Amino acid sequence: MPERASEMAYTTVLFDLDGTIIDTNELIIQSFLHALEGVTEEPFTRERIIPHMGYPLARQLRFFTGREQVGDLEAKYRTFNLDKHDELVKEFPHVREVLAELHGRGVRMGVVTNKARRTTMMGLKRFGLEPFMDTVVTIDDVSRGKPDPEPVRLALQQLGAEPSGALMVGDSQYDIIAGRDAGTATVGVAWSLKGEAHLRSFGPDYMIRDMRELLELVGQRG
Q: Which residues carry out catalysis?
């Protein structure tokens, strides 16, 4: 059960992609390890990468390397990421059934991600989630990615939705901050690779441990 009972029926649900509705965690980690191999003085580890997952790619690479120009590393990352995509991505439990149920109720849904559009659409198509999404906002569509609220606001605008009737669901603090600053209620997912306690510290309005709990937050059937 969600930790807080919903006081209203939400009619719009926005989802982060990576680590929230598609398990791309291993793909992302391996892509970073590949891109950073031989670039930094000390070999990079998974433990150093995980806390920063969720920021736009170029920003992460600049942080990890101290370099301003990281175009070559972005290309190396993206090539590996594309090549290994279908091999390493997985489904999270109950995502497809929950999205189908919400879609059937007439709930408007969208993806708001700091990922590039090409790989975003690959992931949605891979698991049959694309038909449920009324909008998809990627890093290619905005000047500032999450945690800036710009991508969330753009998704709401495209859906003709009010922030007060919307949920932003995500696995990182960047999703919580972006949703909050855009005026939506926020939902943290306890399966976040960063850990439930870490996500809680950013004060999401709700925490769910199972995707099916989301059904309760958007109100009763019909």
A: 16
